[in-house]
Specification:
The chain is of the alpha/beta class. It is built from ten helices and eight strands. α7 packs parallel to α9.
């Protein structure tokens, strides 16, 4: 039985569409509200781990590029510049609420590496000292996300949730949750409030990477849900347009879609 009151350690993944305007520049009002909500959640006694996209978009803006570069090396350069901007932003905004953040850049290979214990120990020490880890993929080393362009931070967030033994994974997207159709094309599409099993029907409803149901389509979010649920971790998809939706969700109100793992 899904009980939000039992969820103490929560991984929250935020996508580029939540953090930035269509111009690629920061959506300052939304980011400031997101940080305030996350700080409040942390202050309430829950443990927040933030998986944040947005580095490439911020790098493009900082480098005054008119459009997203097509070659991988230039995307890596954007990510390197943008990551500095991202952490400066989070450090400054969380600091206004007397909270400290820490940057953790990972590659997916670390989860199968003998060195994963080093990273696990770092997470535990940071969390124990009330510090919010801010996680992103190390795009200078790992280029999977840059080349595939399918929102692979969803998968990274699921792996982080497992790695940190989280109680809950929340993905903030640009859609209210998981629908039985594409709500942007079908006015009769209905939100599915809870999913307890991911079968072929759910996978087919997710569509492909270009379905337009999120930053990289809904398919990567379903994959993240499968990974999380297999490990007994519940996941939810919420609309990040208004970060206050996290309050509603954590208060037990019916928002978004919950993927409830079998316990």
């Amino acid at each position: 039985m899904f009980d939000i009151n039992e969820k103490k350690r929560i991984v929250i993944k935020v996508g580029t569409s939540t953090l930035t305007h269509k111009t690629g520049r920061l959506n300052l009002r939304r980011v400031e509200k997101l940080v305030k909500v996350l700080a409040d959640i942390q202050n309430s006694g829950r443990e927040v781990i933030l998986v944040s996209s947005g580095a490439v978009g911020l790098g493009m803006s900082k480098m005054n590029l008119p459009e997203k570069p097509k070659d991988t090396a230039m995307k890596q350069a954007c990510a390197a510049v943008g990551q500095c901007e991202l952490m400066y932003m989070y450090g400054k905004l969380f600091g206004e609420y007397n909270l400290t953040v820490a940057q953790i850049l990972l590659t997916k290979h670390i989860f199968d590496s003998p060195r994963k214990n080093n990273v696990e120990n770092t997470f535990e020490k940071l969390i124990a000292h009330n510090i919010i880890p801010v996680v992103n993929e190390n795009d200078t080393v790992a280029i999977d996300e840059l080349e595939l362009e399918i929102g692979e931070n969803d998968s990274l967030a699921a792996l982080v949730a497992i790695f940190c033994q989280a109680d809950m994974l929340i993905i903030l997207s640009d859609i209210d949750g998981f629908y039985d159709g594409n709500p942007r094309e079908d006015p009769d599409a209905k939100l599915i409030p809870m999913i307890t099993e991911i079968d072929d029907r759910i996978r087919s409803l997710a569509g492909g990477a270009g379905s337009g149901l999120g930053t990289g389509g809904m398919v990567t979010k379903i994959k993240a849900a499968e990974v999380s649920m297999f490990e007994g971790i519940d996941m939810a998809i919420l609309n990040g347009e208004d970060p206050a939706v996290l309050y509603d969700f954590l208060d037990g109100k019916q928002v978004g879609t919950v993927f409830a793992a079998a316990k």
